[in-house]
Amino acid sequence: MDAEGIPANIIQHRSSTQFLTEKWLRNSVHLSTALPTRYFYARHHTHQPDSLTQLHPRAGNCLFRADQGKPRYQCAASQGPHQRSYSRCQGPLSSLQGSATFEEFVVEISTNPKLAYSTASTVENAKRIVGIFKSLSHADPKRVCVKIPSTWEGLQACRILEAEAIATLATTMFCMEQAALAAAAGCTYIAPYVNELRVHFEQGYVDGSKGFEFCRQAQAYYARHACRTQVLAASLTSVDEVMQLAGVQHITIAPKLLGELSARRASSWGAPLGAYFAQRPLDNWCETTDCQTILGDESSWRLAFTRSGFGASEGKMIQAINYFSDFQDKIEDLVSASAKLAT
């Protein structure tokens, strides 16, 4: 299971009814080649944690189904074999259709991870995604936030997109070199991973170098330098990890952990709630790093990133991009197979 998503704020606002919904591709889910991405998330202000909607399978006519009954969400290809394919992709969520309009959602959606090392291609892909959502609704485009891998090229793409009022989230992030460059690029959010992605795919694997200190360090850095970028902690595996992050600006919680969290009283947490983030980071990154040099020079940044954690940070990012690229390949195969069946 992927461990990213959109800000839930449930640590700072425990009475919130905002739920993170997340769904990995299964055999019953089809995505259009018009939107080449692995998955998407939606936050919805209801008590329905599975109110995730689907996308129509036809290339060029991708459909975000937030309200089944509204004509503007209908697709020209909703008849014939495409309608049958669409009905199959509804799956167990069909009973929730019509529960909300698109305007009530905040959506985060990833660019094609195989474009992670191309600024121009990532920008083009992101604009294509946002254009699709704009064609579906007159809602504020800021309700769509594009997730982009935190490579040098990806973060330069974020800089371009943010300058054009497209919200971005820098993902696959493991170190301050990435976090500082994301802030310089003007990203709306970063998603620092507490655990490397491997923990969600390899049973029994434990990340021996969790990113709690990185989350705290990034948030302190942003506050110190008055950055607009906000921290959205991600890749969590337990309620204890969630509780330790109390005080972070935003946090992503998978449905399983959200259920466990709702069943646990805050008073049962052994340490004072928020104590970890109330403390200063152990290290002031800028005091030991020539920030201006590495942020303004590509080769300097690449070397600093490569040396971060003696290569561990870059290795974790490369691993994450590989996982996501594998899923991208699978979805492209799935779409191709679906298109053949529909013709």
Automatic annotation (TrEMBL):
One Pfam family this chain carries? TAL_FSA
An example Gene Ontology biological process: carbohydrate metabolic process
Q: Which domain of life is it from?
A: Eukaryota
**E.C. code:** 2.2.1.2
* Single Gene Ontology MF annotation: transaldolase activity
Q: Does the keyword Glycoprotein apply?
A: no
Q: Does the entry feature the keyword Transferase, yes or no?
A: yes
InterPro entries reported in the protein's UniProt record: Aldolase_TIM, TAL/FSA, Transaldolase_AS
Question: Which reaction(s) are listed as its catalytic activity?
Answer: D-sedoheptulose 7-phosphate + D-glyceraldehyde 3-phosphate = D-erythrose 4-phosphate + beta-D-fructose 6-phosphate
Pathway(s) the chain acts in: Carbohydrate degradation; pentose phosphate pathway; D-glyceraldehyde 3-phosphate and beta-D-fructose 6-phosphate from D-ribose 5-phosphate and D-xylulose 5-phosphate (non-oxidative stage): step 2/3
Q: What does this protein do?
A: Catalyzes the rate-limiting step of the non-oxidative phase in the pentose phosphate pathway. Catalyzes the reversible conversion of sedheptulose-7-phosphate and D-glyceraldehyde 3-phosphate into erythrose-4-phosphate and beta-D-fructose 6-phosphate.
- Protein name stated in the entry: Transaldolase
- The scientific name of the source species is Metarhizium robertsii (strain ARSEF 23 / ATCC MYA-3075)
